Amino acid sequence: MASVTSRQTLLLYLAVLPAPTFIHDPAWLGAGLALAIALAGTGRWRLLKKSLLAILAFNLTASLGVVIVGLWRGALDTGWLLTANLRVLLMAYLGFWCVARVNLLKALQAWPTATLVAALALGQARAFERLIRDFRLAFASRTPCRPRLGDRRHHAAAQAMALLDKAQAQSTEVALAMRSRGAFER
Question: What's the pLDDT tens digit per position in 119-138?
Answer without folding.
Answer: 888 888 898 899 899 988 98
